[in-house]
Amino acid sequence: MKPAPFVYHAPADVQETLELLAELGPEAKVLAGGQSLVPVLNMRLASPAHLVDINRVAGLDEVTVEPGGVRVGALVRHAHLLSHSAARTAQPLLRQALRWVAHPVIRNRGTTVGSIVHADPAGEMPAVLALTDGHVLLRSVHGDREVPASSFFVGPMECCATADELAVEAVFGRFPPGTRTGFSEIARRHGDYALAGVALALRLGDDGSVTSARASFVSLTEVPDVLDLTDAVAGATAADLPGLAGRVEEVVGGHVDPVDDIHASADYRRHLAVVQTHRLLDRLTAGEDADGTVRLPDAPTDQEVTA
Ligand SMILES: Cc1cc2nc3c(=O)[nH]c(=O)nc-3n(C[C@H](O)[C@H](O)[C@H](O)COP(=O)(O)OP(=O)(O)OC[C@H]3O[C@@H](n4cnc5c(N)ncnc54)[C@H](O)[C@@H]3O)c2cc1C
After folding, report:
1. pLDDT-based confidence at 301, cuts 50/70/90?
2. Is the pLDDT assigned to residue 292 strictly greater than 50?
3. What is the mean pLDDT of residues 130-158?
4. Is the CB–ligand 1 distance for residue 118 below 6 Å?
5. Which domains does the chain have, with CATH numbers?
6. Given the DSSP bridges, would you call strands 7-9 and 50-53 parallel, antiparallel or unpaired?
7. Of residues 257, 256, 252, 208, the one with CA closest to residue 232
Protein backbone atom coordinates (compact mmCIF):
# COMPACT_ATOMS: atom_id res chain seq x y z
CA MET A 1 0.00 0.00 0.00
CA LYS A 2 0.95 3.63 -0.39
CA PRO A 3 0.70 6.21 2.38
CA ALA A 4 -2.12 8.73 2.51
CA PRO A 5 -1.10 12.10 0.99
CA PHE A 6 0.93 14.38 3.26
CA VAL A 7 2.79 17.67 3.01
CA TYR A 8 6.55 17.18 3.24
CA HIS A 9 8.76 19.62 5.18
CA ALA A 10 12.56 19.53 5.32
CA PRO A 11 13.76 22.06 7.89
CA ALA A 12 17.45 22.94 7.94
CA ASP A 13 17.95 23.56 11.63
CA VAL A 14 16.50 22.78 15.03
CA GLN A 15 14.77 26.16 15.44
CA GLU A 16 12.93 25.82 12.12
CA THR A 17 11.92 22.26 13.12
CA LEU A 18 10.54 23.43 16.46
CA GLU A 19 8.59 26.27 14.82
CA LEU A 20 7.06 23.84 12.32
CA LEU A 21 6.11 21.37 15.06
CA ALA A 22 4.55 24.19 17.10
CA GLU A 23 2.56 25.43 14.10
CA LEU A 24 1.41 22.02 12.82
CA GLY A 25 0.73 20.35 16.19
CA PRO A 26 -0.77 16.81 16.18
CA GLU A 27 -1.22 16.98 12.38
CA ALA A 28 2.55 16.44 11.96
CA LYS A 29 4.97 13.56 12.53
CA VAL A 30 8.75 13.77 12.76
CA LEU A 31 10.50 11.59 10.17
CA ALA A 32 13.96 10.36 11.25
CA GLY A 33 15.23 7.06 9.79
CA GLY A 34 11.73 6.11 8.66
CA GLN A 35 12.29 2.45 9.54
CA SER A 36 9.25 2.35 11.80
CA LEU A 37 7.24 5.34 10.59
CA VAL A 38 7.25 4.55 6.86
CA PRO A 39 5.81 1.02 7.30
CA VAL A 40 3.17 2.53 9.61
CA LEU A 41 2.29 5.12 6.94
CA ASN A 42 2.29 2.54 4.14
CA MET A 43 -0.09 0.33 6.09
CA ARG A 44 -2.18 3.44 6.83
CA LEU A 45 -2.03 2.79 10.55
CA ALA A 46 -1.29 6.53 10.75
CA SER A 47 -2.04 9.26 8.24
CA PRO A 48 -0.48 12.53 9.42
CA ALA A 49 -1.19 15.53 7.21
CA HIS A 50 2.45 16.69 7.50
CA LEU A 51 5.84 14.97 7.74
CA VAL A 52 8.73 16.95 9.22
CA ASP A 53 11.88 15.29 7.90
CA ILE A 54 14.79 16.05 10.27
CA ASN A 55 17.48 14.38 8.17
CA ARG A 56 18.90 17.71 6.95
CA VAL A 57 19.00 19.29 10.41
CA ALA A 58 22.57 20.05 11.35
CA GLY A 59 24.14 19.11 14.67
CA LEU A 60 21.98 16.12 15.60
CA ASP A 61 24.32 13.33 14.50
CA GLU A 62 26.89 13.42 17.30
CA VAL A 63 27.80 10.78 19.87
CA THR A 64 29.47 12.35 22.90
CA VAL A 65 30.97 10.35 25.74
CA GLU A 66 30.99 12.22 29.03
CA PRO A 67 31.58 11.19 32.63
CA GLY A 68 27.82 11.37 33.20
CA GLY A 69 26.79 9.26 30.22
CA VAL A 70 26.77 8.70 26.48
CA ARG A 71 24.84 11.42 24.64
CA VAL A 72 23.31 10.21 21.39
CA GLY A 73 21.92 12.83 19.01
CA ALA A 74 18.57 12.40 17.26
CA LEU A 75 20.18 11.57 13.89
CA VAL A 76 22.73 9.03 15.15
CA ARG A 77 22.01 5.80 13.28
CA HIS A 78 22.09 2.49 15.14
CA ALA A 79 25.09 1.44 13.00
CA HIS A 80 27.09 4.53 13.95
CA LEU A 81 26.52 3.96 17.65
CA LEU A 82 27.28 0.25 17.32
CA SER A 83 30.68 1.02 15.80
CA HIS A 84 31.54 3.89 18.19
CA SER A 85 34.38 2.48 20.25
CA ALA A 86 34.39 5.15 22.98
CA ALA A 87 30.63 4.78 23.47
CA ARG A 88 30.71 1.02 23.75
CA THR A 89 33.65 1.18 26.16
CA ALA A 90 31.81 3.68 28.35
CA GLN A 91 28.58 1.69 28.25
CA PRO A 92 29.08 -1.89 26.96
CA LEU A 93 25.33 -2.55 26.94
CA LEU A 94 25.01 -0.30 23.88
CA ARG A 95 27.00 -2.67 21.73
CA GLN A 96 25.66 -5.76 23.43
CA ALA A 97 22.07 -4.73 22.64
CA LEU A 98 22.51 -2.96 19.28
CA ARG A 99 23.86 -6.18 17.78
CA TRP A 100 20.33 -7.53 18.10
CA VAL A 101 18.50 -4.57 16.54
CA ALA A 102 17.17 -5.65 13.14
CA HIS A 103 19.58 -6.08 10.20
CA PRO A 104 22.55 -3.98 8.98
CA VAL A 105 20.46 -2.22 6.30
CA ILE A 106 17.90 -1.11 8.87
CA ARG A 107 20.60 -0.14 11.38
CA ASN A 108 22.19 2.04 8.68
CA ARG A 109 19.05 4.20 8.47
CA GLY A 110 17.20 3.73 11.76
CA THR A 111 18.12 6.07 14.59
CA THR A 112 18.55 5.06 18.20
CA VAL A 113 16.56 8.07 19.40
CA GLY A 114 13.77 7.25 16.91
CA SER A 115 13.59 3.76 18.34
CA ILE A 116 13.28 5.17 21.86
CA VAL A 117 10.53 7.65 20.87
CA HIS A 118 8.73 4.85 19.01
CA ALA A 119 8.59 3.07 22.43
CA ASP A 120 7.99 -0.39 21.03
CA PRO A 121 8.06 -2.92 23.92
CA ALA A 122 9.93 -5.18 21.45
CA GLY A 123 12.69 -2.57 20.92
CA GLU A 124 16.07 -3.23 22.51
CA MET A 125 17.16 0.38 23.08
CA PRO A 126 14.28 1.46 25.35
CA ALA A 127 15.28 -1.40 27.67
CA VAL A 128 18.91 -0.24 27.63
CA LEU A 129 17.91 3.37 28.32
CA ALA A 130 15.86 2.19 31.31
CA LEU A 131 18.53 -0.08 32.77
CA THR A 132 21.21 2.60 32.49
CA ASP A 133 18.91 5.15 34.21
CA GLY A 134 19.18 7.29 31.11
CA HIS A 135 17.04 10.19 30.00
CA VAL A 136 15.72 11.91 26.88
CA LEU A 137 16.10 15.60 26.15
CA LEU A 138 12.88 16.99 24.64
CA ARG A 139 12.88 20.44 23.06
CA SER A 140 10.04 22.70 21.90
CA VAL A 141 9.63 26.42 21.24
CA HIS A 142 8.81 26.69 24.96
CA GLY A 143 12.15 25.27 26.08
CA ASP A 144 13.79 21.98 27.12
CA ARG A 145 12.76 19.23 29.44
CA GLU A 146 14.90 16.32 30.51
CA VAL A 147 12.76 13.23 31.08
CA PRO A 148 14.18 10.20 32.89
CA ALA A 149 13.55 6.83 31.27
CA SER A 150 11.44 5.83 34.26
CA SER A 151 8.78 8.37 33.24
CA PHE A 152 9.47 8.70 29.50
CA PHE A 153 7.67 5.49 28.48
CA VAL A 154 3.96 5.67 29.27
CA GLY A 155 2.61 2.60 27.45
CA PRO A 156 3.21 0.28 24.50
CA MET A 157 4.25 2.45 21.52
CA GLU A 158 3.65 5.57 23.58
CA CYS A 159 6.08 8.00 25.16
CA CYS A 160 5.50 11.27 26.96
CA ALA A 161 6.75 13.55 24.13
CA THR A 162 4.06 15.96 22.96
CA ALA A 163 3.37 16.75 19.30
CA ASP A 164 5.37 19.98 19.41
CA GLU A 165 8.47 18.38 20.97
CA LEU A 166 11.58 17.13 19.20
CA ALA A 167 13.65 14.48 21.00
CA VAL A 168 17.04 16.14 20.60
CA GLU A 169 19.11 13.43 22.24
CA ALA A 170 19.03 10.38 24.48
CA VAL A 171 21.60 10.04 27.23
CA PHE A 172 22.54 6.54 28.35
CA GLY A 173 23.93 6.40 31.88
CA ARG A 174 27.26 4.82 32.78
CA PHE A 175 27.68 2.16 35.42
CA PRO A 176 30.28 2.31 38.18
CA PRO A 177 33.59 0.64 37.24
CA GLY A 178 33.49 -3.11 37.73
CA THR A 179 29.84 -3.48 36.74
CA ARG A 180 29.32 -6.49 34.51
CA THR A 181 26.67 -6.27 31.80
CA GLY A 182 25.08 -8.71 29.41
CA PHE A 183 22.25 -8.86 26.90
CA SER A 184 20.45 -11.97 25.76
CA GLU A 185 17.69 -12.34 23.23
CA ILE A 186 15.73 -15.07 21.51
CA ALA A 187 14.04 -14.38 18.19
CA ARG A 188 12.65 -16.73 15.59
CA ARG A 189 15.36 -15.62 13.17
CA HIS A 190 18.31 -13.34 13.83
CA GLY A 191 17.20 -9.76 13.05
CA ASP A 192 13.56 -10.40 13.89
CA TYR A 193 12.01 -8.63 16.85
CA ALA A 194 12.68 -10.54 20.06
CA LEU A 195 10.29 -13.14 21.40
CA ALA A 196 11.97 -12.27 24.67
CA GLY A 197 15.13 -10.39 25.64
CA VAL A 198 16.92 -9.47 28.84
CA ALA A 199 19.51 -6.80 29.69
CA LEU A 200 21.36 -7.33 32.96
CA ALA A 201 23.80 -5.29 35.04
CA LEU A 202 25.53 -6.99 37.95
CA ARG A 203 28.06 -6.06 40.58
CA LEU A 204 30.19 -8.40 42.65
CA GLY A 205 31.92 -7.86 45.98
CA ASP A 206 35.59 -8.59 46.65
CA ASP A 207 34.69 -12.20 47.50
CA GLY A 208 33.01 -12.68 44.09
CA SER A 209 29.49 -12.75 45.46
CA VAL A 210 26.65 -10.69 44.03
CA THR A 211 26.09 -7.29 45.63
CA SER A 212 23.61 -5.93 43.09
CA ALA A 213 21.69 -7.23 40.08
CA ARG A 214 19.19 -5.29 37.94
CA ALA A 215 17.42 -6.27 34.74
CA SER A 216 15.17 -4.81 32.07
CA PHE A 217 13.24 -6.74 29.46
CA VAL A 218 12.32 -6.75 25.77
CA SER A 219 8.92 -7.99 24.50
CA LEU A 220 8.02 -8.92 28.05
CA THR A 221 6.66 -5.77 29.70
CA GLU A 222 4.45 -2.93 28.45
CA VAL A 223 7.12 -0.36 29.24
CA PRO A 224 10.79 -1.05 29.92
CA ASP A 225 10.80 -0.80 33.70
CA VAL A 226 13.73 -2.10 35.74
CA LEU A 227 13.56 -5.15 37.99
CA ASP A 228 15.90 -5.12 40.98
CA LEU A 229 16.94 -8.74 41.53
CA THR A 230 19.40 -7.97 44.29
CA ASP A 231 17.31 -9.41 47.13
CA ALA A 232 16.86 -12.64 45.19
CA VAL A 233 20.54 -13.28 44.52
CA ALA A 234 22.55 -11.13 46.97
CA GLY A 235 25.55 -12.97 48.39
CA ALA A 236 25.41 -15.70 45.73
CA THR A 237 28.58 -16.84 44.01
CA ALA A 238 28.75 -18.63 40.66
CA ALA A 239 28.58 -21.94 42.53
CA ASP A 240 25.31 -20.95 44.23
CA LEU A 241 23.43 -19.86 41.11
CA PRO A 242 22.16 -23.26 39.92
CA GLY A 243 20.40 -23.58 43.28
CA LEU A 244 18.70 -20.19 42.83
CA ALA A 245 16.76 -21.10 39.68
CA GLY A 246 13.48 -21.33 41.60
CA ARG A 247 13.98 -17.93 43.24
CA VAL A 248 14.83 -16.30 39.88
CA GLU A 249 11.77 -17.91 38.33
CA GLU A 250 9.57 -16.54 41.10
CA VAL A 251 10.89 -12.98 40.87
CA VAL A 252 11.27 -12.66 37.09
CA GLY A 253 8.13 -14.68 36.31
CA GLY A 254 6.16 -12.44 38.65
CA HIS A 255 7.52 -9.23 37.11
CA VAL A 256 7.14 -9.79 33.38
CA ASP A 257 3.72 -9.52 31.78
CA PRO A 258 3.96 -10.88 28.23
CA VAL A 259 1.04 -11.39 25.89
CA ASP A 260 0.09 -14.19 23.51
CA ASP A 261 0.52 -13.48 19.82
CA ILE A 262 0.99 -15.48 16.63
CA HIS A 263 4.72 -15.88 17.36
CA ALA A 264 4.65 -17.26 20.90
CA SER A 265 2.41 -17.79 23.90
CA ALA A 266 2.72 -15.62 26.98
CA ASP A 267 3.78 -18.69 28.99
CA TYR A 268 6.59 -19.47 26.58
CA ARG A 269 7.82 -15.86 26.64
CA ARG A 270 7.76 -15.89 30.43
CA HIS A 271 9.78 -19.11 30.39
CA LEU A 272 12.32 -17.47 28.05
CA ALA A 273 12.56 -14.48 30.39
CA VAL A 274 13.36 -16.69 33.36
CA VAL A 275 15.84 -18.92 31.54
CA GLN A 276 17.71 -16.01 29.94
CA THR A 277 17.91 -14.04 33.19
CA HIS A 278 19.22 -17.06 35.07
CA ARG A 279 21.72 -17.80 32.34
CA LEU A 280 22.96 -14.18 32.30
CA LEU A 281 23.29 -14.15 36.09
CA ASP A 282 25.26 -17.37 35.88
CA ARG A 283 27.62 -16.17 33.18
CA LEU A 284 28.15 -12.68 34.56
CA THR A 285 28.93 -14.06 38.01
CA ALA A 286 31.34 -16.62 36.57
CA GLY A 287 33.34 -14.28 34.32
CA GLU A 288 33.44 -11.89 31.41
CA ASP A 289 35.32 -11.26 28.20
CA ALA A 290 38.20 -8.83 28.04
CA ASP A 291 36.00 -6.18 26.44
CA GLY A 292 33.58 -6.34 29.33
CA THR A 293 30.96 -8.34 27.48
CA VAL A 294 29.78 -11.83 28.17
CA ARG A 295 29.83 -13.86 24.98
CA LEU A 296 26.71 -15.98 24.94
CA PRO A 297 26.83 -18.98 22.62
CA ASP A 298 24.00 -17.74 20.40
CA ALA A 299 25.01 -14.06 20.23
CA PRO A 300 25.65 -12.87 16.66
CA THR A 301 29.32 -12.77 15.73
CA ASP A 302 31.05 -9.55 14.65
CA GLN A 303 30.96 -10.85 11.08
CA GLU A 304 27.19 -11.36 11.26
CA VAL A 305 26.71 -7.90 12.76
CA THR A 306 28.49 -6.09 9.94
CA ALA A 307 27.48 -8.38 7.04
C1 LIG B 1 12.26 -5.13 9.13
C2 LIG B 1 12.53 -4.31 10.37
C3 LIG B 1 13.02 -4.95 11.48
C4 LIG B 1 13.25 -4.21 12.65
N5 LIG B 1 13.74 -4.87 13.73
C6 LIG B 1 13.95 -4.17 14.86
C7 LIG B 1 14.44 -4.83 16.03
O8 LIG B 1 14.71 -6.03 16.06
N9 LIG B 1 14.60 -4.07 17.16
C10 LIG B 1 14.32 -2.72 17.18
O11 LIG B 1 14.48 -2.09 18.23
N12 LIG B 1 13.89 -2.08 16.09
C13 LIG B 1 13.69 -2.77 14.94
N14 LIG B 1 13.24 -2.11 13.84
C15 LIG B 1 12.94 -0.66 13.94
C16 LIG B 1 14.18 0.19 13.80
O17 LIG B 1 15.03 0.03 14.92
C18 LIG B 1 13.79 1.68 13.67
O19 LIG B 1 14.84 2.32 13.13
C20 LIG B 1 13.48 2.42 14.92
O21 LIG B 1 12.50 1.75 15.67
C22 LIG B 1 12.91 3.82 14.66
O23 LIG B 1 13.92 4.67 14.28
P24 LIG B 1 13.78 5.58 13.00
O25 LIG B 1 14.91 6.53 13.02
O26 LIG B 1 13.66 4.72 11.79
O27 LIG B 1 12.43 6.36 13.32
P28 LIG B 1 11.21 6.75 12.39
O29 LIG B 1 10.65 5.52 11.76
O30 LIG B 1 11.57 7.86 11.51
O31 LIG B 1 10.21 7.30 13.53
C32 LIG B 1 9.64 6.44 14.47
C33 LIG B 1 8.70 7.25 15.38
O34 LIG B 1 9.45 8.10 16.23
C35 LIG B 1 9.16 9.49 15.95
N36 LIG B 1 10.46 10.17 16.01
C37 LIG B 1 11.61 9.72 15.47
N38 LIG B 1 12.62 10.53 15.82
C39 LIG B 1 12.09 11.51 16.57
C40 LIG B 1 12.64 12.64 17.25
N41 LIG B 1 13.95 12.91 17.21
N42 LIG B 1 11.80 13.44 17.96
C43 LIG B 1 10.47 13.19 18.03
N44 LIG B 1 9.90 12.11 17.42
C45 LIG B 1 10.70 11.29 16.71
C46 LIG B 1 8.49 9.51 14.60
O47 LIG B 1 7.60 10.59 14.46
C48 LIG B 1 7.76 8.18 14.61
O49 LIG B 1 6.55 8.30 15.34
C50 LIG B 1 13.01 -2.81 12.66
C51 LIG B 1 12.53 -2.16 11.52
C52 LIG B 1 12.29 -2.91 10.38
C53 LIG B 1 11.77 -2.20 9.14
Report:
1. low
2. no
3. 98
4. yes
5. 7-53 (3.30.43.10), 63-172 (3.30.465.10), 180-288 (3.30.390.50)
6. parallel
7. 252
